[in-house]
Structures are given as C-alpha cells and as structure tokens.
C-alpha cells in the first residue's frame, strides 16, 4: 500500500547527453533539486522519512498520522483493530499521501518486532516512533479488578517499552531517530477513580526521562506529550454513555476549550523535526493550563 517517491531528475534520459539538450536537462534536474530542498525545509526535514504511529486507527493517532503524511513522511499505521488501521491507511493513500497498514498488538514482543521489521522493509529506515496506543480503566480502588489494573499497564507501560526497544535497536546503529510518547496529564495530577490509568501514565512519563538520558549519546531524542482534555469521537461516546457534563468539564480549563487532535499532532511533528534535534527528555502538556488550575470553592 505504500507509494514510492518520484525520482529527482526524472526528466533526464540517457540519450540527452550533448549540447543544448544536456543543458536543459541539467537545468531541469537542478530545478527538481531546488524544489525538493525547499519542500524539505518547509516540512521541517520530515519529507521522505519514515514514521510509525501506534493506535492510529482513530483519534489523536489517526490525526497525527495524517499530519505527518501531509508533511511528506511515509507513515505506517498501527492499530490492534486491523480494519481501522487499513481504513486509515487507505484514506491517506486516496488523498495522494504515503502510508501503509501494520496491524499488531503492541503488548506482544513477537508482533512488535515483526511490525518494525515489516515497516523498514516496506518503507525504509524508521525515523520516528509515536507511541500513541493506550488503554483506560476507571473505578474506585476498593472495587477495581485485577484486569482493570493490568489493562493500562499492559498497553501504556509494557507496550511503550516493547515498541521503543524494537525501534532503538534499529536506530542506535544509525545514530539518529525520534521517539514521541503520548502520555496524559493524568500522569501528572490526581484523578479520582482512575488509579490504574494515572499510575500507568506516570510510568510512561518517567520511562521517557530514563530513555532520553540513555539514548542521548546515540543521537536519538525521546519526549512525552501529555494531552489534557481533548475532543475526540471516543470522548463524545464516553460522555453520552456515562452522562458526563461536558460544559462542567470545560469550565475546569482556563483556556475555555478542550484541545483538538490537531493541537497534539502539530507538536508531534515539531518534536520529529530537525528543529527539535536538541530537545529530549521533556514532558510537555497540551492542555490549556488545565493541569495547573485548581479552583478553590470557598464557603459563602
């Protein structure tokens, strides 16, 4: 499903080698090179590089994959749901972007290794890994089941480790690469009845810091984006199912609105770019100051 790039200097043929024809051919090639260089600069150095986005069948991952592809990256779409991964990849290709589908469980070391190998075989050397796949559970700690505890850790911690490990095994010899982990402000603040999710995201945050120090000598950056409340289809469905008051939720955000999926996607693109080459080990909140705001209800 991945598409190939046009060859720079494609207007030249072996027969065009003498006199005036050669000059015009050279000029066409140089024009192609200048255009390619300008496009590369405008894309932040992303054009032609390979990205893998996990959990990209919907939500933030899907939007991030589309933005990266629009910047000229070759994007591998991972999701546990094969149909969702296929649909995302097909929609990108239909718009003339470069993508392929790589469904797999991020919780399986065997599947992750096979996925990374397949991505590099089909698209080329991996430049960017976006660890976006996640799992959520909620409920009072006193009644929380073992499965509800294990779920977030299986995906948000173990999956993060397995995908990152497989990626850096390829990146270290090349001495280059980017890893962006999608955390959550839930890993920074306390949320009632979300102990497993908050704890797993806190683990992801510290994992980011530890791996960043380890990878810095190898030219690999590792950063963590922590979204605040974000308007997604999943949130809309959850709000309806659980009877959540969205207006009350927005009132807790000083910026007066929820984040959009695009807010997060643009930061991922920046962290993947050449402009962020010296930025690593950072935990960045995109939440409209939500994680800083704790309204105090004073008695009247």
Task: Give a structural overview.
With 300 residues, the chain is an alpha/beta fold. 47% of the residues lie in helices and 12% in strands. The protein has a single domain (48-230, 260-292), classed as NAD(P)-binding Rossmann-like Domain (Rossmann fold), CATH 3.40.50.720. It is built from nine helices and seven strands. The chain has a seven-stranded parallel β-sheet, with helices on both faces. Helix 5 (146-174) runs parallel beside helix 6. Residues 1-38 have low confidence and may be disordered.
Radius of gyration, CA atoms, in whole angstroms: 22 Å
Which regions have little confidence, pLDDT < 50, spanning 5+ residues?
Answer: 1-38
Total number of domains: 1
Tell me the span between the first and last alpha carbons. 63 Å
The total strand number stands at 7
Helix count from the secondary structure assignment:
9
CATH superfamily: NAD(P)-binding Rossmann-like Domain
Strand order of the largest sheet: 3-2-1-4-5-6-7
User: Class by helix and strand content?
Assistant: alpha/beta
How big a fraction of the residues is strand? 5-15%
CATH architecture: 3-Layer(aba) Sandwich
Order of helices and strands: HEHEHEHEHEHEHHHE
Please report the first level of CATH classification, the CATH class. Answer: Alpha Beta
Residue-averaged pLDDT:
87
Percent range of helical residues: 40-55%
**What is the third-level CATH name, the topology?**
Rossmann fold
Largest sheet: 7 strands, parallel
Query: What coarse outline follows from CA principal-axis ratios?
Result: globular
